[in-house]
């Protein structure tokens, strides 16, 4: 059995024979509110892995460099070893979630320009919102790295928006993570799935993402299956 290097809320990371490659295993766990709400949904890991691999392949084809080497099976991917920046990188296209809660802003407003946010990835402090100067002062990334991450994230937003619109889904907001190889190359890492994106139906605004679990308004597995079905059409 391969050595378990790290276990997160929804994933395990294993070593491989090669020092610069890892295996990521997707679990069935779902958490919300910084782990306060926790449940298991049979098949969630498979759905997320399938959806995320399709999206990462699409992004790679469009010139975005990612950690993904190949999908090994339903739940596991082989990835390039990276050191993950302790940053949650968020884009907002439509107002909702913590943006509205924090600022008292109205929900559902289509933003003229996407909002780029960064949070310090640290559960003990509730992933606080930070700016470039905070990230640099905390040694989380350099100014040049943040500039690259911002530019890459805005490009990913345009690609994802177009991808989901074809599926009749609006990309409301999303969170992504980046990592750095030993050579200093910055790659898109982690995953892109309904766990990390908010997706609303174009006509009805029905939610097709983890908010159905966060807000107890629907069946998570059926919701994620519906997203995958639209992707496979
Ligand atoms: P908000 O800041 O409004 O809660 O979230 C903004 C976007 O980032 C949403 O699409 C949400 O799913 C995603 N997001 C924020 N924090 C996390 C997190 O810790 N894990 C995951 N998977 N997604 C997150």
Gist of the model:
With 233 residues, the protein is an alpha+beta fold. The protein has six helices and 14 strands. The radius of gyration is 17 Å and the shape is globular.
Describe the 3D structure:
It is globular and about 50 Å long. A hairpin with a 5-residue loop joins strand 12 (169-180) and strand 13 (186-189). Strands 8, 9, 10, 11, 12, 13 and 14 form a seven-stranded antiparallel β-sheet that branches. Strands 1-2-3-7-6 form a five-stranded antiparallel β-sheet. The chain has 233 residues and is an alpha+beta fold. The chain is 30% helix and 33% strand. Guanosine-5'-monophosphate binds next to strand 9, helix 2, strand 12 and strand 14.
Described by the principal axes of the CA atoms, the overall outline is globular
Bound molecules: guanosine-5'-monophosphate
Helix content: 25-40%
Radius of gyration: 17 Å
Q: What is the number of beta strands?
A: 14
Percentage of β-strand residues = 25-35%
Poorly predicted runs of 5 or more residues: none
Structural class: alpha+beta
Q: Counting H and I runs of at least 4 residues, what is the number of helices?
A: 6
Q: How would you spell out the order of helices and strands?
A: EEEEEHEEEEHEEHHEEEHH
Report the sheet with the most strands, covering strand number, pairing sense and barrel closure.
7 strands, antiparallel
Distance between the termini: 37 Å
Average per-residue pLDDT, rounded, comes to 97
